[in-house]
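Figure 2 data, in text form.
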Amino acid sequence: MDSDTAALAPDALFSDRVRRFQEFLDTFTSYRDTVRALQLTQDDNEGPLHQRVTISLDELREFDRSYWSGILNNPAQFIPPAERALTELAQSIGDLPSSHRARTAPVAQRPWKISFKGSFGSHSLSPRTLTSHHLNKLISLQGIVTRTSLVRPKILRSVHFAEKTGRFHYRDYTDSTTTLTTRIPTPAIYPTEDQEGNKLTTEYGYCTYMDHQRVSVQEMPESAPAGQLPRSIDV
């Protein structure tokens, strides 16, 4: 990163990365077509709109090698502006039939998400080669799924009501599965009293949750060294 870029304020740097990824999406118009197709195929009976687009790392590397390197080595700083650019692209598509615009209007403001395909280079790993060196980096993990848990809700924000004061209170919860960076997890215990000692009642209908699932990935047997058992890791 040159000195001019490093001198930019965080908000300006974020906006610059949003603009750069918008240029990438404008260069490879297939992504606009993919977003439009997802919006057109939305049906009232299909539930929430599927708002995820797979980006080719090979095309991104061809377009801007520094952005590609940032996605792999510092995803917490590069993926959010990329998803903002994708969200703005989805909101800018104005040639949808009126029936589809009305149907997708309630979710139009929801952020779109990005997944990746293509060559990860040295970031293509197995459970045996994954080390602490790869913390907070984007990786591709190859293996066999040996066990999956049920999909359960994980709390992101709890909302509580103090009947005595008539006020609402909330608490956010984070851990390594809810953010792009490694953080100290917050206690997953609902508060029972406010600062004045008034009793709090949890308003479950106002709480925010996300789907959470644990997957066990085992090293490919042919990749394990001779005489050693394949290693596993939980994702």
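Caption note: The helical segments are 3-6, 10-27, 30-40, 57-63, 65-73, 75-92, 98-104.
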